[in-house]
Design goal:
The complex is a heterodimer of chains A (334) and B (371). Chain A has 334 residues and is α/β, with parallel strands linked by helices. Chain A is built from eleven helices and 15 strands. In chain A, β1 and β2 form a beta hairpin. In chain A, α3 crosses α4. The longest helix of chain A is centred in the middle third of the chain and has 18 residues. Chain B is mainly α and 371 residues long. Chain B is 65% helix and 6% strand. In chain B, strands 2-1-3-4 form a four-stranded mixed sheet, sandwiched between helices. The two termini of chain B are 24 Å apart. Classes of the chains: A alpha/beta (334), B mainly alpha (371). Chains A and B meet through α2 and α3 of A and α1, α8 and α9 of B. The structure holds adenosine-5'-triphosphate and magnesium ion. The site of magnesium ion (MG) has 6 residues of chain A, from α1. Adenosine-5'-triphosphate binds next to β2 and α1 of chain A.
């Protein structure tokens, strides 16, 4: 099987800051690859390098078999990119947006018209085809963004946080669309997200990125099995947290005890068996147990396991639908 | 090749969704024409002048007639008669009059005897433009008294200068038309071309386009061409409307009208490319606003559109030599008012062509196809 994307110690610096630190990954053709990380992890920066609009400080990558620095034109022809900013022109209709993108890729007229009609249908915008994108809701605009970069049948589709800012229902619609496209159009998809559920629901393989480095990579199952235990018992304690953590960590059945945001998270094999034992341990130590919960391991826990931080802590970013809005590129886009 | 058409199409479609801008860009230069035309009258009229005539002899009355003739004929002055010469001078100082003419009691006697007849002319020299016009008009009136003798016995040894009008006299309003059309072009280049690129960048939609196979030349060329189409359309309307307002022949011969269009086209392409070169990396539309407001003035006034370039100090004339608007205004004046064919103004055309080529090349070369 050949590789759709391969990066070689790719790095990007902005002044003092190293946004992407020597990342080397390989993505097979036909994969739905997820790049999971919190705000500022370097996801967009990596996508911008892979899509030829940012030059790497060092290292390189090949996309669709072409080198991003030496053969950028060939790279551009084989990809489609949905940027983090909603980038469809608001003062054009859905059909115009798509038609013009088709022309950017020199898709012949007849093929273009057919493809545009088909895609409009598939993203549920047929009825709105000739209305200005300015009148669309956020979810519709997102669907248009996606449809627009598929007119030329790209081999590789890049999506930078395609569902951020969307309500859960629109998000599900987009997920379903992407899965169908993936299946029917025989593409490789590279998606970034900071939603755990998204990566788990869509991706065949996930890389977790934090502060510019890949800290874990594998299928969602592999990643989860990489952390000990099956369940997590979460105790909310009002005092003696540090003390209880140390006691719990010393217990044989606790694989790992971690304090995160005031909660004590104990990785165990069986939550239902071990939760009562842990509660007793805490009360005996003089702590007051305010709440207990048992969770199945998720990618969220993988992230916490490796970074000691929750991805959600950093989710406070505001997402405007117009985006980028006004942030000069020098000062950093989102 | 198809891609550049897509860039043009995108830009034109987007522009057409906002027709108000287009209307404003046409109406504003025409408003300039009307305001400039009325505020910088070629000949000043109705300057208030006080007359204190203390001589009731023959020459005193003759001088009075001359002054009245100026007030009635070219209407340069309106006269107010006074008896107190101190008050008249005082009123010039405090701004009630722009000037005062004082005829002393012994004026006729001195004229008759030919001993240094003098008339006092006081002019408010803080207002330079009216000072010039007024001094001219009043001195002419006084000097004309002597012509009585000259006309009887012309001195054949002295060269008599007589004004010969080579071309039809051009009214000041009409003379402004080339400048106003060039200003319309400048405005067009402010709201199209590079502005749309900067706007895309500002909205963060530029990267989506940079990630497609569109090339540098497609982007720069496409935006310049769509800006060209829009600006030419605007400039032509402004030309036609201002020609109609001021009574200039709009079309004339086919070659005259084509000549005008050629000059408009070259100036438009040149200015669009120049704006692209200078603002190709700007990331905020406000930068375009501030910069082009500044450039508009810098280019417009030294273009000879309002004041003749020959009256400028040396350094400013040197600037005019590289100012594309100077060549455009000059070329348009030659075609519109002198009926010159294109080959007669080949100097202007060659300059505009070179300017366009250099600017366009530099604009493409310096354009950065990355974020
Ligand atoms: N043009 C720039 N100039 C300076 N710093 C930048 C620039 N672009 C990005 N950065 C910085 O690089 C780091 C990575 O940014 P990046 O946009 O890649 O993060 P991200 O993972 O996409 O985050 P988000 O989830 O918020 O989109 C951040 O610290 C950001 O501030
Ligand atoms: Mg991002």
């Amino acid at each position: 099987m050949s590789l759709a994307v391969e990066t070689f110690d790719i790095r990007k610096t902005f002044g003092e800051l190293t946004a992407v630190k020597d990342i080397s990954i390989q993505i097979n053709e036909g994969e739905f690859f997820g790049f999971l990380g919190p705000n500022g992890a370097g996801k967009s920066t990596l996508i911008r390098m892979l899509t030829t609009v940012l030059r790497p400080a060092s290292g390189t990558a090949s996309v669709g078999g072409f080198d991003i620095t030496k053969e950028p034109d060939e790279v551009r022809r084989s990809i489609g990119v949905v940027t983090q900013n909603m980038a469809s022109d608001l003062d054009l209709t859905a059909r115009e947006n798509m038609d013009i993108f088709g022309k950017f890729y020199e898709v012949p007229k007849k093929a273009r018209q057919e493809r545009v009609a088909e895609l409009l249908e598939r993203v549920g915008l047929s009825k709105k085809a000739d209305e200005l994108a300015a009148t669309f809701s956020g979810g519709m605009r997102r669907r248009l963004d996606i449809a627009r970069v598929l007119v030329h049948k790209p081999e590789i589709l890049f999506l930078d946080e395609p569902t951020s800012g969307l309500d859960p229902q629109s998000r599900r619609v987009v997920w379903e669309m992407l899965q169908n496209f993936m299946k029917d159009y025989n593409m490789t998809i590279f998606l970034t997200t900071h939603y755990m559920e998204e990566a788990e629901a869509l991706c065949t393989r996930v890389a977790i990125i934090d502060r510019g480095s890949v800290i874990a990579m594998g299928t969602p199952d592999e990643l989860k099995s990489g952390i000990p235990g099956n369940d997590i018992v979460i105790l909310t304690l009002s005092r003696e947290q540090e003390n209880v953590r140390n006691l719990a960590a010393a217990e044989g059945y606790v694989h790992k005890a971690q304090l995160e945001n005031g909660d004590l998270r104990c990785y165990v094999d069986s939550g239902s068996e071990d939760a009562p034992r842990l509660m007793k341990l805490a009360t005996d130590a003089g702590a007051e147990v305010r709440a207990v919960s048992i969770q199945k391991l998720s990618l969220e826990d993988v992230f916490i396991h490796y970074t000691g931080r929750s991805i959600r802590e950093e989710e406070s970013k505001k997402v405007s639908l117009f985006l980028g809005a006004g942030v000069p590129s020098k000062l950093g886009r989102n | 090749m198809r891609r550049v058409f897509a860039v043009i199409e995108r830009d034109m479609r987007k522009f057409s969704r906002n027709p108000v801008i287009m209307v404003m860009a046409v109406v504003m230069p025409i408003a300039y024409l009307i305001i400039l035309g009325n505020s910088f009258q070629g000949k000043l009229k109705g300057l208030p002048v006080a007359v204190v005539n203390q001589d009731d002899g023959y020459w005193g009355r003759r001088l009075d007639e001359r002054l009245k003739a100026v007030a009635i004929g070219p209407k340069t002055v309106t006269l107010t008669y006074m008896s107190d010469q101190g008050k008249a001078v005082e009123d010039v100082r405090n701004g009630k009059f722009k000037g005062a003419v004082i005829v002393p009691p012994d004026f006729s006697r001195r004229m008759a005897l030919g001993i240094n007849p003098e008339v006092g002319i006081f002019v408010d020299n803080t207002d330079q433009i009216s000072e010039g016009a007024l001094t001219g008009a009043l001195t002419d009136a006084v000097n004309s008294l002597r012509e009585v003798f000259v006309s009887v016995r012309p001195d054949r040894t002295v060269v008599q200068a007589r004004r010969v009008e080579l071309y039809r006299m051009v009214d000041y309003d009409q003379a402004l038309v080339p400048g106003v059309v060039v200003m319309a072009i400048f405005m067009g280049t402010m709201i199209t071309g590079v502005f749309n690129l900067v706007m895309d960048r500002f909205l963060g939609v530029d990267e989506a386009i940079l990630m497609t196979p569109v090339t540098k030349t497609d982007i720069v060329g496409g935006l310049v061409v769509s800006g060209f189409i829009i600006t030419m359309f605007m400039a032509t309307i402004v030309y036609i409307v201002s020609a109609l307002i001021t009574g200039i022949t709009v079309f004339g011969s086919v070659s005259r009208f084509l000549g005008i269009l050629v000059v408009l086209a070259l100036a438009t392409m040149g200015l669009l490319s120049m704006m692209f070169l200078m603002l190709g990396r700007a990331n905020h539309p406000r930068i375009v606003g501030v910069f082009s407001g500044f450039m508009n003035v810098i280019f417009f006034f030294p273009s000879g559109a309002v004041y003749p370039v020959e009256g400028f100090p040396k350094w400013l004339r040197a600037f005019s030599k590289v100012n594309p608007e100077y060549y455009a205004v000059h070329a348009l004046k030659s075609i519109i008012f002198k009926g010159n064919p294109l080959w007669a103004i080949y100097g202007d055309i060659v300059f505009l062509l070179c300017f366009l080529t250099v600017m366009m090349t530099l604009a493409v070369v310096t354009f950065k196809r990355t974020l």
